[in-house]
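Q: Give me the 3D complex with NAP.
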Amino acid sequence: MTKLFETPVKIWLTGATSGIGHALARALLDEGHHLILTGRRQEALDAMAREAGEQVTTARADTTSKEDLAAVREQLDREKTVQVAILNAGTCEYLDVANYSSDIIEKNIHTNVIGTARSVEAVLPSLRSARRQGLPARLVIVSSSAWWFPFGRAEGYGASKAALTYFAQSLRADLAPEGIGVTVVSPGFVKTPLTDRNDFPMPFLISADEAARQIVKGLKKGKSEIQFPKRFTWMLRGFAALPQGLIDRMAAAMVRSQNKQEQNQ
Ligand SMILES: NC(=O)c1ccc[n+]([C@@H]2O[C@H](COP(=O)([O-])OP(=O)(O)OC[C@H]3O[C@@H](n4cnc5c(N)ncnc54)[C@H](OP(=O)(O)O)[C@@H]3O)[C@@H](O)[C@H]2O)c1
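A: Here is the predicted complex, encoded as structure tokens.
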């Protein structure tokens, strides 16, 4: 059986209209793949389709909407044959603990966990159909390394990405007997419209093009875990190995220093 990504395949990519997804779409098009691109903004999808010509089909959808995804599922069923789904659509909303609101937690979980779970529902029949034809198939879920450390204000985002990673790894076990691979992507800080809103230092920040390069490299190697940049993910792994009391003191010190900086501005 040909290894995935050795020859052009059909890929469904969500969150394609901006940041990492946009850069990833360009990198995959350069490799000759055919892409079905999803985001909420039709104009942005149309612009990408105009640029790429016949290599791109668009499938506008809000990935939290069951109705939108039911329509995408029909479209994916018609496309012959989707072998890869890269579920990258996501959001990051920070909690202001002085004005605590559970809505922030809900928004992160709704987009990052429920939206991805619904996207899996839309694409699983296509991946199973690929397997029935003897073709390789893979689900790629874009999580984050942010939840490996208890960063202040990230209660909602971190919880959503921790849940998403567990979801993906558990799905990996369940789909293994069917021969459908599951890859979890855990980036550090990547410069995108999502992180342009951050008002704190982002160590080892990389470009969206570099993130896309790392993802494509990992997928070509058939990796089930793709984590980058290594300097950042190893640092977080090192922190995670410390006693919890020390981790808590470091996290609280970071919050105090951030609060002080804000007061001095
Ligand atoms: N940037 C980082 O440092 C970083 C680090 C770790 C992980 N990540 C993860 O990487 C992924 C991409 O992030 P990014 O930084 O590239 O963010 P971004 O520039 O804000 O892009 C987010 C993408 O997701 C789409 N999207 C958001 N909500 C959606 C919804 N409900 N339905 C459909 N599409 C939706 C957006 O499209 P529309 O606006 O057209 O809907 C957009 O294309 C996210 O899952 C994020 O958590 C990012």
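A quick observation: Residues 14-21, 39-41, 44, 62-64, 88-92, 111, 115, 142, 144, 187, 189-190, 192-195 surround NAP (CB under 6 Å).
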